[in-house]
Amino acid sequence: MRPGRSGRWPVLLVAAPILGLLVVPLVALGLASSPSDLAIGMGDPLFGPALWLSARTTLVSLAIVIGMGTPLAWWLAVGPSGRTRVVELLVDLPIVMPPAVVGIALLMTFGRSGLFGAQLDFLGIQVPFTTTAVVLAQVVVSAPFYVQAASAAFRRIDQDLLIVGRTLGQSSRGAFLRIAVPLALPGLVGGAALAWARALGEFGATLLFAGNLPGTTQTMPLAIYMALESDVRVAVALSLVLAAVSLLLLLALRSAPAAWTFLHSTTLGRAPRRAPREGGA
To answer: Is the pTM of this model over 0.90?
Structure first.
């Protein structure tokens, strides 16, 4: 039974503080900078390289996450539950681990004295404090969000459709690419948006594993941290850009299922009809 209008006010009053805590800081951020201050901040030498590096590395990390995370999500969705539970636990672990711990773990893996340090040093490859380290940190922290969303989308698919596809001559790979992926596409897009947003905002693991080198490892969150020590206007400008990108990603995430449903229904509605035969029956 739904509460009446009079019963909603106590609930709203209790929820108002947390709602205000979520909304008011964003409003304050938007009011903290005038157009002239924003232009000055965007013209700072920190702004351009940090924006370009964040865009470049997050797109690379997103491509890695989608390319390798989609088969993993499919296996988690259709594999035996006894095996997938352990793998799901390992995949979800970076979500609950502090980013600083992730950064130290990556350093102990790829650093000079790390697990693969001797092999990488023999090959003349340095991973920490490079752009590659930025991409690796972004992949580790963002992949769980995509794999979770993708595996949930694959689980919602009616398995009978895949069986029908196999009986019509589709191979396992063909049924996956031509049936499972299109049906799960809204969930895959939503997971990709979450993963990209997480990679774009990554700070702690990147700082400890890749450092804060302008033009090489200094992404936008690290540039905000550095700008706070010298010019707040640059920090505010960078923050506003990140907030705007996050808002766009959220809007895309919210509208993706509805857009896919509309596109799918439109495509079905335009299916060609059989022309009537001439001369009657």
So the answer is: no
